[in-house]
Design goal:
This protein is α+β, with helices and mostly antiparallel strands. The chain is 27% helix and 32% strand. The strands form two sheets. A seven-stranded mixed beta sheet has the order 6-5-8-3-2-1-9. The protein has a two-stranded antiparallel ribbon with strand order 4-7. The chain is elongated.
Length: 166
């Protein structure tokens, strides 16, 4: 009779062990989320010849490059986004689902401004226009809140200085 009871309790014990293992795995994953440091977005400080600085979040993942500043309600003061492309090219950008107008700069590999657009309106519905391409190949695109170009005094051929904020 005992052997019959132990056999019937084996499936119950096995089930309990599986449940405990799943709960332990969930607990370990939850704890690791708090213990492991999350990588903050990289910030590049872009310094203009006038001395004005822009703290630009780096669009360094496909998702960030795809969405850019979309769905954001605002930027921090002197904030923006820096797109770093793998190659020089005639890159175009769109403002689909942006919530505010922006200024756009195209910058070449040597960090010189090759093209600028001021007060580019957001686009909420397709088809959204593309802006660009610049007249010359660019490696970087910088987006900032509308009015930043006037504030910075940026001009075509200005050389920008980049530094990583630690």
């Amino acid at each position: 009779m005992q052997s019959g009871q132990s056999r019937s309790s084996e499936p119950g014990q096995k089930k309990n062990r599986i449940i405990m293992m799943v709960l332990l795995a969930i607990l370990l994953m939850s704890v690791s989320m708090f213990v492991v440091e999350r990588k903050e977005s990289s910030i590049i400080v872009v310094r203009f010849p006038s001395g004005v600085e822009l703290e630009a979040e780096v669009a360094d993942t496909p998702e960030k490059q795809l969405f850019g500043l979309a769905f954001r309600e605002e930027l921090p003061p002197n904030g923006g986004m820096l797109y770093i492309f793998e190659e020089n090219g005639l890159h175009r950008v769109r403002t689909k689902e942006y919530r505010f107008p922006i200024d756009i700069l195209w910058v070449d590999e040597s960090h010189h401004v090759v093209h600028m657009l001021e007060h580019v309106e957001p686009c909420a519905k397709d088809p959204c226009p593309s802006y660009g391409p610049p007249p010359e190949a660019a490696r970087y695109v910088i987006q900032a809140e509308s009015g930043f170009l006037k504030k910075s005094g940026a001009m075509r051929n200005d050389e920008l200085k980049y530094s990583l904020r630690m």
